[in-house]
């Protein structure tokens, strides 16, 4: 079990920590690392590109695979072009939704005031773009020099720490229901478990009680219900703007999940 955990950490150390979910793991790099140990192919990290697929193949002693393609051109280090998000600030309505969506807390602003992106921290993960109700976030090419390896590793370590801090804050916000819930579905337990194994990471504490004096099972169901309702609402809004068969199916699945949770 210790070896298993160490291997997950070694894999996670090679992943870019963009937390973008493009590998198919919505909650980011750590769940993908865990799934690789369980047997998933190690060539799915799109921002990592071929260099990360090759490093993972070496670490795992598996055959090298062609990395999944990015839509962006390849940089001099063999990885896809780095991108940055930029808010068209005169159009921002200050709804704060992008703040919750940003896994590395690169957005500053508060309710009803214009928001800005801290360019140095932004990884171009694009996660802030879909929640923005007025579509005022653009993605632009990062024109800075491609970082050398040591600098990239330092950046990754910082992004990992920022993500854990973000999860801790969102977990508290979700339970106290302050502000919009955008990524409440993160598997906080998994990150809490790993945060306890690494002293360099912010320690994630999962609040065990809420002020509402309900049993933990009731609280869990209530949170689950709130998450599903919020996802449903979001999908309904998106479908009202543009029909999409995949989202329509997700809506049906979520509706079923909601019915199950409500026991109807
Ligand atoms: S950076 Fe790579 S491993 Fe991490 S979430 Fe994105 S695609 Fe997955
Ligand atoms: S600002 Fe947007 S694109 Fe940049 S890291 Fe945050 S969520 Fe990702
Ligand atoms: S989601 Fe869009 S409108 Fe809302 S605060 Fe962020 S940038 Fe502004």
Describe the structure.
Residues 209-217 have low confidence and may be disordered. The longest helix has 28 residues, at 149-176. This protein has helices spanning 2-14, 29-37, 49-60, 97-101, 149-176, 188-195, 216-241, 245-262; strands spanning 83-87, 107-108, 116-117, 137-141. It folds into three domains: 1-76 and 146-196, no CATH class; 83-141, Alpha-Beta Plaits; 222-262. Helices cover 45% and strands 5% of the residues. The chain contains eight helices and four strands; from the N terminus they run H-H-H-E-H-E-E-E-H-H-H-H. The strands form two sheets. The chain has a two-stranded antiparallel ribbon. A two-stranded antiparallel sheet has the order 2-3. With 264 residues, it is mainly α. It is globular, with a radius of gyration of 19 Å. Helix 1 crosses helix 2, helix 5 (149-176) crosses helix 6 (188-195) and helix 7 (216-241) packs antiparallel against helix 8. One iron/sulfur cluster is lined by residues 87, 92-98, 109, 115, 131-132, 134, 136-137. One iron/sulfur cluster is lined by residues 15-16, 18-23, 25, 28-29, 32, 45-48. Residues 3-62 form the 4Fe-4S domain. Residues 83-112, 113-142 form the 4Fe-4S ferredoxin-type domain. It comes from Acinetobacter calcoaceticus. InterPro entries: 4Fe-4S_dom, 4Fe4S_Fe-S-bd, 4Fe4S_Fe_S_CS, Elect_transpt_cplx_RnfB/RsxB, RnfB_subfamily. Pfam families: Fer4_21, FeS.
């Amino acid at each position: 079990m210790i070896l298993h955990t160490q291997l997950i950490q070694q894999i996670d150390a090679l992943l870019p920590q963009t937390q973008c979910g493009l590998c198919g793991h919505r909650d980011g790099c750590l769940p993908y690392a865990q799934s690789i140990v369980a047997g998933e192919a190690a060539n799915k990290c799109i921002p990592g590109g071929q260099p990360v697929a090759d490093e993972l193949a070496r670490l795992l002693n598996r055959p090298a695979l062609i990395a999944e393609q990015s839509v962006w051109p390849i940089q001099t280090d063999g990885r896809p072009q780095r991108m940055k998000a930029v808010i068209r600030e005169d159009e921002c309505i200050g709804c704060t939704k992008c703040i919750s969506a940003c896994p590395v807390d690169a957005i500053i602003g508060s309710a009803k005031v214009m928001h800005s992106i801290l360019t140095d921290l932004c990884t171009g993960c694009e996660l802030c773009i879909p929640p923005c109700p007025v579509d005022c976030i653009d993605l632009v090419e990062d024109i800075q020099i491609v970082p050398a390896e040591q600098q990239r590793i330092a950046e990754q370590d910082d992004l990992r720490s920022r993500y854990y801090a973000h999860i801790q804050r969102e977990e508290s916000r979700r339970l106290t229901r302050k502000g919009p819930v955008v990524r409440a579905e993160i598997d906080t337990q998994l990150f809490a478990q790993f945060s306890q194994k690494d002293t360099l990471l912010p320690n994630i504490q999962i609040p065990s009680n809420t002020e509402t004096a309900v049993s933990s099972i009731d609280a869990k169901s209530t949170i689950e219900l709130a998450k599903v309702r919020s996802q449903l609402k979001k999908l309904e809004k998106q479908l009202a703007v543009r029909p999409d068969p995949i989202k329509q199916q997700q809506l049906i699945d979520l509706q079923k999940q909601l019915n199950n949770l409500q026991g109807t």
